Amino acid sequence: MTEATTARPAFERAALLAWLQRYGVYAAVVALVLFNAAFTPNFLAVGNFRTQFVQVAPIVVVSLGMALVIGTEGIDLSVGSVMALSASMIALYLGYGAWPAMLMAILAGAVAGAVGGTLVAVVGVQPIVATLALLVGIRGLANVLLPQLKEIRNPTLTALGSESALGVPLVVLVALALTLVVLFVVRKSTFGRQVVAVGGNRIAAELAGLPVRRILLLVYVVSGVLAAVAGILASSRLQASDPTSLGLFMELSAITAVVVGGTSLTGGRVRVLGTVMGALLMQLLQATLIKHNLPQSWTQMAQAVIILAAVYAARERR
Amino acid sequence: MTLTTVPPETEAARERAGRLFRQHGALIVLGVLLVVGSLTFDSFATVANFGNIATSSSFLAIIAIGMTFVIISGGIDLSVGSIFVLSGVLAAYGSQYGFLVALALPLAVSGLFGLAQGLIIARTGMAPFIVTLAGLLGARGLMLAISDEGAATYLVRDPLFAKLGQGSVLNTGYPVLVAAVLLVAAMVLLQRTGFGQNVYAIGGGEDAAGFMGVPVARTKVAVYLMSGLLAGLAGALNAARLSSGVTILGIGLELDVIAAVVIGGTLLTGGSGALGGTIAGALLLGVIQNLINQVGDLNASFQQVVSGLFLALVVIAHRFLGGARRIE
């Protein structure tokens, strides 16, 4: 949007805000990395980098789905509970082997997403309520299916959480691959364009003949599947299925990553790489504060400030 | 779809049924559950058990009163769970300085949180969802900071303050009485004052309300201030009841509160809803939990499944009975 160039000072301010909104998250990540490189001992060690990326991988995977949902002007509060459900399914079906167990977990995520998507797209319930009902219900279901934490002893699954290929942890590779897939879908595929169109103006999309309901439904299914994958990744790292606490607050982390990454809550735009950067920023922030002996409480307060700043910057653009 | 036109009288009847369900659905289901529960379990329909349900529901109900105002105004407040815990810790901490500090400290801080959120929402036009999400994180961070990262638990030192949470008259706990008084006051405020009219008007259409001369910004600030204060009061009362500021409470509480309000028939799109339904919704959640506890061998997490299913059924019913406005 470079048409508005009438008043020069106003333009400069708008341009600065626009730049901040587009690249602020990248700048913040770079600044944090530089700060840590200068002031944090051992930050640049390979082991530390690995730890950071491994920890952020499940959040990135969930956030990718969330970015698509928010792109349609929706929201998915159920992702953390779907991660827990995924963990339960793994524990339940591990007897049949690692692959069937993972397949069942992903299937459960798809079904959960389809239920949410049906409520939103077909019944017409507001996304926040529909997925709130799922958040409550699915967490309970996960707990009913698996009342307590269960250790994972399967070699394939534990390898997924602990092994590397070409020096990159498998968990990170999965997150990276999914990022590329979603990036391709958003930028190059018809479906990606449809998602953005529905989020930008649903009525116009309907009038243009787009299958709006099917698109919405599919977006929630994708979000559910990605949350289930994140559940698999997190469980394989923990070497345990933990339906009680796995994915708690994940919806908040994911929404934060998406919003800080420059995707507008009002829909019509999806920033995939920004979302990944948003997740990285929050992870780095937490790591930085911990490494400098500042407590967890500071992280949350700093997160709050960053969210407000990011959304404020985005607001000026409308 | 063989019928292309619906007779107007059918449409009107459906509309009426929808409105009836939306306004009184929670109450009807509550009544049914009470009857079924009484017939099924001997230990359910006792004065002591009803007292338990009322007391444990009262905290949720107090917060839900504020949330009803927020949602009717077209907003949402995700920060109430964090403010509830923060206030509980502050109340317990303050109780070493006496009754007044124990009550005033949490109310001052929770009021400030509500005020700040209201000002940001009203002045910048940022989405309430995101502003109160930041409030959720901020209040949790502050709570962790003053409780030594959640490790320190403050005990309530003031016996008079503890009584506020534990005492009762005629088998009715003080928190229940507080909730009842607040409910009556809030009903008057919402239904009988200009302020209440303004809240409905803003939720119905903010721009139109502004053109009609409704003080939009001021009303919004007041609504979020109220929600913060009520969450703070509930947190303080809960600390008094437990005799300590427990740091692990309140996670996901905002969702229970929103569920109570929605089950009570208030539309999340704003502009419509009532406090009577909210209270019925809060009690309904309390009764469901109690009934599940009565079935001894059922997993406690079963309550979440039932609550979630219930919420889903209620919103679907709202849509199909035509109670909700169609957005398309």
Automatic annotation (TrEMBL), chain A:
Membrane topology note: Multi-pass membrane protein
Chief place of localization: membrane
Keyword annotations: Cell membrane, Membrane, Transmembrane, Transmembrane helix
GO terms of molecular function: transmembrane transporter activity
Domain of life: Bacteria
Pfam families (UniProt xref): BPD_transp_2
Subcellular location: Cell membrane
GO CC entries: plasma membrane
Transmembrane segment boundaries: 23-46, 52-70, 128-146, 166-186, 215-234, 246-265, 272-290, 296-314
InterPro entries: ABC_transp_permease
Protein name as annotated: Ribose transport system permease protein
Source organism (scientific name): Streptosporangium album
Automatic annotation (TrEMBL), chain B:
Pfam families: BPD_transp_2
Keyword field contains Cell membrane: yes
Annotated transmembrane regions: 26-48, 60-93, 99-122, 129-147, 167-190, 221-240, 304-322
Protein name, UniProt field: Ribose transport system permease protein
Cell compartment(s), UniProt: Cell membrane
GO MF assignments: transmembrane transporter activity
CDD domains given in the database record: TM_PBP1_transp_AraH_like
GO CC, one annotated term: plasma membrane
Main location: membrane
Organism whose genome encodes this protein: Streptosporangium album
Membrane topology classification: Multi-pass membrane protein
Alphabetized UniProt keyword annotations: Cell membrane, Membrane, Transmembrane, Transmembrane helix
